[in-house]
Sequence to fold (115 residues):
Amino acid sequence: MLRITSDEYDNLCKEWNSELEKAEQDIAEHSQAHKEFSIALSTLLDIAGRANELFEISKPEQKRQLVNFIFSNLKLEGQKLVFNLKMPFDQMALLSKSENWLRRSDSNRQPYGYT
Fold:
């Protein structure tokens, strides 16, 4: 029967504890990133939902910043304003036209996020 020495055991414990600490640190960093992403997404959705209201009450410089934040390639062609939406506003506009608001299913035909 093969046995390890107490020194080998201690070394393995140190390695394992080091890996465990690293994994816990990674989890904490990912949790913080998730919180920051959620805050940014919430702010972005708030801006998108209130863009007209924000524009109306803003000063000229703030209006310029809001327009530059949402739009790119603004052009006036005669009486028509031509523009492109910046990311992620272009994706929001596409999703707003979609009728498919259901979550995608996993391989077991369960919506993602449900057990």
